[in-house]
Amino acid sequence: MKAKQILIFKSSVRTKEKKTFLMQLLKFHLPQIQSATLDLDDEDAIFRVETEDCSVDLLTALLHRHGIKVDFLDRFVLV
Q1: DSSP states of 8-75
Q2: In CA terms, which of 20, 30, 60, 74 is 20 to 30 Å from 5?
Q3: Average pLDDT over residues 62-79
């Protein structure tokens, strides 16, 4: 069994429409993501993902291809 991890990113998303688009991208392309949140009220638009099976590189490449810039900040492993 793989460990669940939480990935934290700073994002370029600033609107509700772009946030909705981001969540739809994840649902369609990365079903291995259990949950994702994006805080539009935060100045860095913090994007948080819970997954057991998605790499930072895979996620950032997908988002960049669709015009969403994310900068990886941290990873937490849940035990």
Answers
A1: EEEE---SHHHHHHHHHHHHHH-TTEEEEEE-TTSTT--EEEEESS--HHHHHHHHHHTT--EEEEEE
A2: 20
A3: 94
State the average pLDDT for the chain: 94
Is the pTM here over 0.85, yes or no?
yes
User: How far is 16 from 32, CA to CA, in rounded Å?
Assistant: 23
| pLDDT > 90? residue 67 | yes
Nearest to 60 by CA among 20, 10, 6: 10
d(CA 68, CA 10): 11
